Amino acid sequence: MLIIGSDSRQGQGDGFGDPDEETAVLNDVNLLLHISEDHSHAEVVSFPRDMLIDIPTGCTDPDSGEELWEQYGVKINSVLDYGGMPCVVKTVENLTGLTIPFAGTVQFMGAAAISEAVGGVEVCVAEPIEDVHTDLFLEAGTHELAGLEALQFLRTRYGVGDGSDLGRISNQQVFMSALARELQSDGTLTDPLKLYSIAKAALDNMQLSSTLGDPTKLVSIAKAATDIDLAKIAFVQYPTGYVDDFAAVVPTEAAEAINLALQEDRPMLLDPTANADKDFASAGTSEPTEAPAEPAEPEPSTDASAEPTESAAPEPTAEALSGEVSGQTAAETRCSAGRTLADQ
User: Which residue ranges are recorded for the region named Disordered (predicted)?
Assistant: First the structure.
């Protein structure tokens, strides 16, 4: 499922700039949720908004319906305006080699409303966050965030990490991992009434693909994650490197390991030291996550009369990612690396 965060100001009220002046419709947040076929692991992959990609053929103009030309080497956050939500899906499919059947787009106030519906999220802040651009000011410590304050936390860039979009992604992973822990610990994922309430909030506040037209589909997706071990829910930043003028990023060779793990439905094993040397990363020491144990080989039967049986297909093993790939699991409590005005 591809979740797209749009920065369109249309219909968002005061506080986000003048919609007549800020007319861009940019998909600044692009999250790919993958739940394994056997529901034993899940991954959420974040694609940096300034990543250069190719837009494939098959996209149509959202207004006229006319077929659009393919594009090469454009920023991924320009795709929503170019070809709408279906084109963003096609572009990520082209990048990863996947088929993505579900998608949804959410604007600012929609994200705030959904955070209210889940009951708020408690996050850890290592150093104070000071961001005049989103009007977010948080002292070091733990904070329960919901509504507008949760939205500000998800949007802040200048107030965290190195002030880049990569730092914002790391900050969003702090929020999402805390959300996963809370949804499991408070029983939300096993409570039909709570799930339907959240699903209705999504339906009311998101533009969803036709495949997500009723709340039961959203509830079934949520229930698929009910029993997944938190250590096997990985939040991964798609690996990129800066171009020469630092105005954009491009996928690195390590991105192919992400693509293959997704295509082959294998869990991703993050390097516990991966965040240590990255200025944009969240704060705190991540505990190592052990790879799933290899299944033991069955002992050969000594019963000559035993009927031969078909051997089961081997379970997919974890993809050990290089130290270039940053992220965290839902089992890890990391803290936002706050950034004060003096550091900006």
Answer: 1-20, 271-344
Residue 75 is encoded by which pair of tokens? Answer: 């920023």
User: Which of 187, 198, 202, 172 lies closest to 328, judged by CA?
Assistant: 172
> In the chain, which ranges are E strands?
2-6, 27-35, 42-46, 52-55, 71-75, 103-106, 121-125, 129-131, 136-138, 141-145, 206-208, 233-237, 240-242, 249-251, 268-269, 319-320, 327-329
Cα separations in angstroms, 194 against 42, 131, 223: 21, 33, 12
Q: Is residue 302 part of a domain?
A: no
Cα separation of 19 and 6, whole Å?
13
Give yes or no for a contact between 109 and 93, defined as CB atoms under 8 angstroms apart.
no
Evaluate the CA torsion angle 205, 195, 42, 168 in order and state its sign: positive
Report the C-alpha gap between 287 and 330 in whole angstroms: 11
User: Where in the sequence is the domain holding 277, given as residue range(s)?
Assistant: 2-288+317-343
- 223 part of a folded domain: yes
| Secondary structure class of 328 (helix, strand, coil) | strand
Strand partners, 6: 27
| Structural domain includes residue 304 | no
CB 164 within 8 A of CB 280: yes
Say yes or no to pLDDT of 222 above 90. Answer: yes
Q: Residue 155's pLDDT band (boundaries 50, 70, 90)?
A: very high
* pLDDT band, very low/low/confident/very high, at 286 (cuts 50, 70, 90): very low
pTM of the model: 0.89
In a domain, 312, yes or no: no
Residue matched to tokens 């600012």: 108
55 to 71, 81, 206, 227, 344: CA distances (angstroms): 5, 12, 24, 37, 34
Alpha-carbon gap, residue 68 to 308, rounded angstroms: 57
Task: Check residue 17 and give its pLDDT.
Answer: 62
What is the distance between the alpha carbons of residues 125 and 162, in angstroms, rounded to a whole number? Answer: 15
Q: State CA 272 to chain mean position distance.
A: 19
